[in-house]
Amino acid sequence: MKRTPLERFFDLFVNRSPQKIYDGSPPPSDEIREETIVDGFVDRLDQHELWVTPRVNLWELNSEQTGMWKPEEIVGHYGHPLQPDIDLLFGPVDGSRRTGPLVGVEVKHFAYQSGAGNVLPKTRLATVPDENGGQEWQAEGGFYAGLDQALALLQTGVDYVILAHIIHYDPDIWELPHSNNTEDKRAAYREISKTYSRNIARLIDTFDLPIGYVAAGAEPLTDAIASHTIRKRSPDRNPFVRAESAGRIRALLSEGLDLDIEY
């Protein structure tokens, strides 16, 4: 029996051995960002009879399809502000047809870290000028990063939503005040990663949120970025998918991305 799109995604995060979430020589560790991880997902999922589209900007898609760009026009037509962007959107292929169910993924890459007791992993945003005329990473967002966007994706017409937390580990930049031993570094890294994911899982489970969740460590290797699964939870069917505004956004996705889906 053919595996579902959800199963294919979670196949990238099996519990037993490290899996590749980026197949090929990755960029230098300090240049890996969310876009790198998303591109890795695209390549890996594209091998499994799925269509995959990264970085879906609903506002731009609307402008291309309808010519509407004024906020009052868009809100009046959709009953929705067409936010946020969808980091990763995918579904099954049936012959030449790109069909549903639609799976939307919000990806957060925790990479700004030192482990030296004063900087926990945070999400990278962009490079900004530093005081020496060079560039440095701007970072924000704690363990909860992306939870708000994942919940907002429930109103964008997708059938399932997943929040993916990818927590970067590189022994060369992970420092401890008391030890440089690699195993000590790994132990500290694992404990922080588990704490991040455990608290997100508590929020999802306690409030019975319909989103899925995956947390994985990411370690750059010579020929790949390997994921070490920390936690995963399958999503429930999106309860908003039949809302009127969601139907209009599904129509936009269908026309703009050449999808054969109901709306």
TrEMBL record:
<protein>
    <submittedName>
        <fullName>Uncharacterized protein</fullName>
    </submittedName>
</protein>
